[in-house]
């Protein structure tokens, strides 16, 4: 994964929460638009609880298939805090991280599903 892909700061032009669909829609000034499922955002939370303090400490978060987003809270002018209905709310999603999650959705999601299967875990609660 090349860090160069993320060196330019993309700025959000639209952030829409579709609670019923459990999706966050984020459009950026570079023309990219992503519909990010709540479950994906939850299992990729930037919080220390999920990411640990180094890449080898990242935790696999099973059982979140039905998780939804309760609230979005702006954090300065650089990020948003997402409160999920499982009450996880410690991740601060920078615009750069949301852009990265959108660009890398397919590979991150496939890796997540593969890791769940390898460990005998499920997306179901």
Describe the structure concisely for a colleague.
The chain is an alpha+beta fold. Helix content is 26%, strand content 27%. It has one domain (3-118): NE0471 N-terminal domain-like.
Any overview of this molecule?
This is DUF971 domain-containing protein. It comes from Marivibrio halodurans. Residues 15-99 form the Gamma-butyrobetaine hydroxylase-like N-terminal domain. There is one protein chain. With 125 residues, the chain is α+β, with helices and mostly antiparallel strands. The chain has one domain: NE0471 N-terminal domain-like (2-Layer Sandwich), CATH 3.30.2020. It contains 4 helices and 6 strands. It has helices at residues 38-43, 48-51, 95-103, 105-118; strands at 12-18, 23-28, 33-37, 69-75, 79-84, 92-94. A 3-stranded antiparallel β-sheet has the order 1-2-3. It is globular. The chain starts with 11 loop residues before the first strand and ends in a 7-residue tail after the last helix.
């Amino acid at each position: 994964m090349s860090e160069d892909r993320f060196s330019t700061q993309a700025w959000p032009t639209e952030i829409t929460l579709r609670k019923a669909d459990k999706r966050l829609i984020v459009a950026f000034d570079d023309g990219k638009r992503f519909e990010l499922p709540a479950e994906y955002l939850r299992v990729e939370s930037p919080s220390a609880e999920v990411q640990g303090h180094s890449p080898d400490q990242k935790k696999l978060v099973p059982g979140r298939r039905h998780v939804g987003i309760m609230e979005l809270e702006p954090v300065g002018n650089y990020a948003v805090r997402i409160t999920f209905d499982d009450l996880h709310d410690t991740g601060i999603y920078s615009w750069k991280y949301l852009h990265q999650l959108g660009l890398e959705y397919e590979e991150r999601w496939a890796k997540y599903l593969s890791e769940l299967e390898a460990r005998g875990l499920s997306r179901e609660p």
